[in-house]
Amino acid sequence: MKKTILAVLLVALVLGAAGASFAGPNDKWTVYLRAADSAGANYLVAQTIFGTLPTATDGPPPEISPANDASAPAGSGSAAAVTCFDLGVGDNNNGYSKDQRAPILAGQKVWNLRLWVQSGWTSGNVVLTAWNLTGTAALNGSFPVVLKVVSDPTGSYAPNTTLYTWTAPATMPAVTFGNTDVIKGGAKYVQLQLIAGTPQGQVPEPGSMSAMLSMMSGLIGVTAWRKRRS
């Protein structure tokens, strides 16, 4: 019986170690986004910056750090924009183009984004691109980062549509929003969310649980068979 218990513990340790190898620290990463016209021009910001840093902190709003956060510029009046409004409207009422937060220790962090065009927009569709780079800003697979549509008055995408999921450096295929007159001036906008991490209390995947239980059952069965033969 002691051998059985030791074998089960060994299996658990091996599986735990395997899981840990895929769940290392990921305390510094960035997802960049840009909204522009179909030629890649007429954007408010060349790349917005959302992610985490070991030096950043979270706290009661408005916790704004000049090193980690940046208000979006005023723009030309005819630009496309995708920015975050969790820290407020910013100096120019265009939200924040940079919002870096403390590392994810458990659960999720959510960036609430708005995509719209300024009142002088005459460039047709808006093309949204997003990417995570290799190097110090890279994701390592510890958790997913998801870009999803919450609501879209242009009718281009249904609510809860997942546009892309990152677990490692990659570029999202370009996403196009039409009917942009609806989101001119920002009174109406496409609401997006960038969601990093996994829900707290998430149970292991069924496949992992089944594999572990099968291995444990097999070890117990073999031990019992040996005991009957001896």
**Rg, Å, rounded:** 23 Å
- Tally the structural domains: 1
Low-confidence stretches: 2-23, 202-216, 218-222
Q: How many DSSP-defined strands?
A: 12
Mass-distribution shape: globular
Q: Provide the residue-averaged pLDDT.
A: 84
Q: Can you give a write-up of this model?
A:
With 230 residues, the chain is α+β, with helices and mostly antiparallel strands. It has one domain. It has 2 helices and 12 strands, in the order αββββββββββββα. It has helices spanning 2-21, 206-229; strands at residues 29-36, 48-52, 69-71, 80-84, 96-101, 108-117, 126-132, 145-151, 162-166, 170-171, 175-177, 190-197. The strands form 2 sheets. Strands 1, 2, 3, 5, 7, 10 and 11 form a 7-stranded mixed β-sheet that branches. The chain has a 5-stranded antiparallel β-sheet with strand order 4-6-12-8-9, with no helix packed on it. The protein is globular and about 45 Å long. Residues 2-23, 202-216 and 218-222 have low confidence and may be disordered.
Summarize the structure.
This protein is of the alpha+beta class and 230 residues long. The chain has one domain (29-197).
Provide the descriptors you would attach to this structure in a database record.
globular, five-stranded antiparallel β-sheet, alpha+beta, 12 strands, seven-stranded mixed β-sheet, 230 residues, single chain
Topology:
Elements: H1 2-21, E1 29-36, E2 48-52, E3 69-71, E4 80-84, E5 96-101, E6 108-117, E7 126-132, E8 145-151, E9 162-166, E10 170-171, E11 175-177, E12 190-197, H2 206-229
Parallel strand pairs: 2-5
Antiparallel strand pairs: 1-2, 1-7, 3-5, 4-6, 6-12, 7-10, 7-11, 8-9, 8-12
Helix pairs in contact: 1-2
